[in-house]
Amino acid sequence: MGYYMGKIKEFFTDRSFFKTVLKIALPMVIQNGITNLVNVLDNVMVGSISSEATSGVAIINQFMFVFYLLTFGAVSAAGIFTAQYHGKGDNENVRATFRIKIMICLAASVTGILLFALFKDFFINMFLTDTGAGIDPELTFTLGAEYLFVMLFGIVPYSLSQAYASTLRETKRTVLPLIAGLSAVIINLFLNYALIFGKLGFPALGVAGAALATVISRYAEFLILVICTHTTSKKSPFITGAYKSLRVPGLLIRKVVRMGFPLILNEGLWALAITLRNQCYSTRGLHAVTAISISSTFSNLFSAVYLSLGAATMVIIGNMLGAGQIEQAKKTNKKLLAFSVLCSVVLGIIMASLSGVFPKFYNTTEQAAALTVFMLIVRAATMPFSSYTNVAYFTLRSGGKVFITVLFDSAFMWAVVMPLSFILSRFTNIDIHPMFIICEGTEFLKMMLGYILLKRGTWAVSLVDR
């Protein structure tokens, strides 16, 4: 007992650890927290229009979510090397990884716009199941299509912002992405109010106004990142001469491609699995789509801390591995896991306590509101498991274990979660409540797998010396 008490005391008195974590993670937590808070307000404003508006926007955001994670996976492949090269002090190769990100983001943008424009009808209709819950499927389709058309104009600035923001974070310059992100969400919030409801002399555009506000805010974020990064090049040496040429060492390209393809595949398959799992929930009616949208919006707000700690893990552990501090990286990783889970337990309790309040902000049916409360409580209970798996995922990635990462993340979704969701939704009459508990509860199994993979310690390697 004394041994464990000593370990606990050592954890809470490790000022160096908390100083490092707060320096890297706190700006991400603030940015993600405020971004998700604005998403909550955005969702509430749209939800005040009608359940059809909430469902239509939610359906489009399901597929946008897949695109965002594909882009994230592609950028992260180069980001693994960015963090380790920065830890080694190699600015030339940091610059090369930034160039790779720019090219990836441009290619992803064109591909995404074409797919959404060509297959929008198919995407939206996947979620339209009319069970007589008082929500009109045709109006839901119309509002979803209207929202998507405007959102397409924001794909390019969003993608390019990821190239800048990720590189800045991986080189420990986290405040600038925070400022750009906060500026964007403030602009988004102001324009949401003005354009959705027609306030302050602006036209009332409804869901199209919500989309337009998002697009404008993304251009603003992109411009802030570009202007501030290039005008403060002494703080970010990688940007000096970044566009003089697009030349990238062939060996680095091969390394990024070798790690990048599995990561892109992983993020895409994982996001698609989440989307299809939600589609399985939607077979129980459009009230389930509305409940998923509302509960996801608020659970994302409370999950901002552990998600940010996961992203910070890749930077902190990646820098240590790049500097050859293998044992220190292992010790720090254990502390990051413990800290993330502890934060999630506290936040999960708070979210469950407030679950009955959130649906009252929406103009929705009683059935959808009650289901929202239930889903929030279930997600609060599984949040500590999700926080552990999130840090485990980024830990494996920081050491370049992409194949294991794919097995741990997307392969688990397709081998366990998707078959379970599909069977329950298509071959049983099980109610949405037990179905949701069973499907979300698989996060516990994933946590146990993450524990096994991390305990082996094979992830703790330096990539930049190879």
Commentary on this structure:
With 466 residues, this protein is an all-alpha fold. Helices cover 81% and strands 0% of the residues. The chain has helices at residues 2-12, 15-47, 51-88, 91-125, 137-151, 155-170, 175-197, 207-231, 250-282, 286-322, 326-354, 366-398, 402-427, 432-441, 443-456. Helix 13 (402-427) runs antiparallel to helix 15 (443-456). The longest helix is centred in the N-terminal third of the chain and has 38 residues, at 51-88. The protein is globular, with a radius of gyration of 22 Å. The two termini are 43 Å apart. The mean pLDDT is 85.
Q: How far do the termini sit from each other?
A: 43 Å
Kindly state the number of beta strands.
0
Structural class: mainly alpha
Major sheet details: none
Strand residue content: under 5%
Overall pLDDT confidence: 85
Helical fraction: over 70%
Write down the overall geometry: globular
The H-and-E topology, N to C, reads as HHHHHHHHHHHHHHH
Number of helices: 15
Unreliable runs, pLDDT <50, ≥5 residues? none
Radius of gyration: 22 Å
Keywords:
466 residues, mainly alpha, 15 helices, 81% helix, 0% strand
SSE layout and pairing:
Layout: H1 2-12, H2 15-47, H3 51-88, H4 91-125, H5 137-151, H6 155-170, H7 175-197, H8 207-231, H9 250-282, H10 286-322, H11 326-354, H12 366-398, H13 402-427, H14 432-441, H15 443-456
A few lines on this structure:
With 466 residues, the chain is mainly α. Helix content is 81%, strand content 0%.
